[in-house]
Design goal:
- By secondary structure, the chain is of the alpha/beta class.
- The chain has two domains: about 290 residues, Rossmann fold; about 55 residues, no CATH class.
- About 55% of the residues lie in helices and about 5% in strands.
- The protein has a four-stranded parallel beta sheet, with helices on both faces.
- Helix 2 packs across helix 3, helix 6 crosses helix 7 and helix 7 packs antiparallel against helix 13.
- The radius of gyration is 22 Å and the shape is globular.
Amino acid sequence: MSSPTTDTRGGSAPGDLEPEDYPRKVLFVAGAGRSGTSTLSGLMQLMGLHVPQPEVVPDESNPKGFGEPAWVVEHHDRLLKDAGVQVSDARPDAWFETGRVSTREPERIRTAEWLDGHFAVNHELVVKDPRLSWFLGLWRVAAIRDGAVPVFATMLRPPSEVVGSKQKYYANRLGSAHLAASWLNMLLHTERATRESVADGGRVFVRYGDLLDDWVKVVMQLGEQLELQHVLHAKSEQIRDGHRFVDPGLRRVTQSLADLQLPPKLHDLTEQTWDELNKLAEPGGDTAEAHATLDQLREAYVDLYAEAEAISRSSVVAAEQRVKRELKGGRAAAPAVVEEPRDLADRLPHGLRAAIPPGVRRRVRKVLGRER
């Protein structure tokens, strides 16, 4: 058995162990944007965990800071562009695209090397970015390669508030239905992607409301469950800093699910998913029974999205025609889709092609008489 001062793969450290001898550990803060991830990351930083520098600078939407390493944001932006996936992508198939990118060995090496360099500053790191969930597998591999234990905290905030906050601060023009669907896609797949950590106590779910109401209780429970030594040995001045940091008024957007006026099926699925995810935040709630229910909800969302794809072909074809007119300098497109040149899809910008759901692309190709 390794001695406490040489074991860097996890486990509790004795009270007299110096921070430089703490086991290597990375806390990955996941969840949808505008769900409180910045608040949790900022608290972890105040407790002594290290947010790799430089950080994303604060702005009006997050005046107290994001708690995000700038390199991580740029890294994820590049990978998402390569995968043809948006930050708030509602497509279930988007997970296959980001998973494909995450398995590339050069990306795994680059990610592990960056992470390893920051353990020289602190053996307990916190990595947070709204794009993080798309690449959880990539980061898990990187942490393990660096001799660190990856642990996960997923923030839970009512989907109606997440949607409202995005509409307020991000000027999102895609509508409530799209944002609710992207929340479902993100949370259901994040839960599944972190599930293998349950056996060793490597994940927690944190309600944003609980964090604002009593952050000390929530953070200390998190520290105990994930064995984060800086949290367990936090000093009184750090607690005072935390009280100054957390403002109960941070919940600046409050609305109900009914206010979003979602399509009935989407409303019901969103409501059921929120109820089930809340169970995971309860003591002893991360159970096989809860997992089975969430699996059913994830399958129901995939079916709902496929149904929406099946009836949206006209919208996709219309979008293709608009792009074609723009590429031709504004000249009107021929009215009959089947009479269009068969190289139309190849002439579309990659970003637009990627934004069209794969199932719809296949059906459009069939209409156009294409085989690929």
